[in-house]
Amino acid sequence: MLVIEQMDVHYGIIQAIKGISITVNYGEVVSLIGANGAGKTTILRTISGLAKQSGGSITFEGDDITKMAASKRVEAGISHAPEGRRVFPGMSVYENLELGAYLSKDKAKTKKSIEMVFGKFPRLAQREKQMAGTLSGGEQQMLAIGRALMLDPKILLLDEPSMGLAPLLVKEIFNTIKEINSSGTTILLVEQNASQALALADRAYVLETGKIVLSGKGEELLKSDEVRKAYLGG
Fold this sequence. Notes:
Layout: E1 2-11, E2 14-24, E3 29-34, H1 40-47, E4 55-60, E5 63-64, H2 70-76, E6 78-81, H3 93-100, H4 107-120, H5 122-126, H6 137-148, E7 155-159, H7 167-182, E8 186-190, H8 194-200, E9 203-208, E10 211-217, H9 218-223, H10 225-231
Parallel strand pairs: 3-8, 3-9, 6-7, 7-8
Antiparallel strand pairs: 1-2, 1-4, 4-5, 9-10
Helix pairs in contact: 3-6
């Protein structure tokens, strides 16, 4: 479905991503784990077209999208819930979700999509008229994911969905991610919580300073002594 080959990304003279290759198959959850600064967020930003690569290629459903504009990638079925949530604070929950469907001209379909999001996140339904900036961190994360689902994407890029959340909310968010995947959406997940990310993942890649140093099935990496010592505190 998504194939990254020999991707390089530079920020000025600094090379943030160094010749990585990643594959995400239909229906999978693939996790990217690694320390802060490893390049995980940069990879997602490059896939969605928010950052430019300096080498390599990205293929999505057989089409080369390396030079495709970010808006066209959304049309193709790539949706991105960014790090830090980035909801529109001065707009209501409902309005934020409507903006997630900005490419759709079908109002009935947009309304149906909002109902779908409210079904996955009942707390958002209770706060549909509330300004997004007044929501709790967990509710803002739910809104960011819900907004990314509004156009029924083929692949959902999730960047640090559990960041700053209480353990109970982390569990709730991960249960919802699992449900989203079970309903047919492929997921590429960047996550600091390595144990949760690996437990959820079909496959995973471990990054260090812009390079992939390990890859394999999520359950295998979860049992790896190397991964446990570096990322799981054991």
